[in-house]
Input
Amino acid sequence: MFDRILNGTLPSHKVAEGELWYAFLDIFPRSRGHTLVIPKQSVRHISELSESMRNALFAGVVEVQEILSKHFETDDFTVCIHDGPLAGQEVPHVHVHIIPRQLGDGGSTLQAMWPNAPPMGGEVDHDSLHTLSMSLQGVES
Output
């Protein structure tokens, strides 16, 4: 679908564009101004982008935030990437959601995405976190 937007066979509502990225309004916005920034290279996962493409994509994210910030008079955004289908990615092309946030806009927090997870706060399990951290670094604890 995003390839069709890039080649002009599917309409989009452009917000901004760079040499390696394109930004347009989401057709099913969570909030007014909800924008998608996509690389012009069609890949499903961020890890498939070259370093220069990743850098360009995130430069595009910042540029779009600046545009939206001026228009919506906010410096606050929810910035979200669903990196693969198990993460909620519905279109198999890397895309960054940028959603301008306003007081009382009805949006919520990361915790709201996992309503059945234990509540935040309370005792921190440093032993478990340490074990996982060492394992991720390839170090036996």
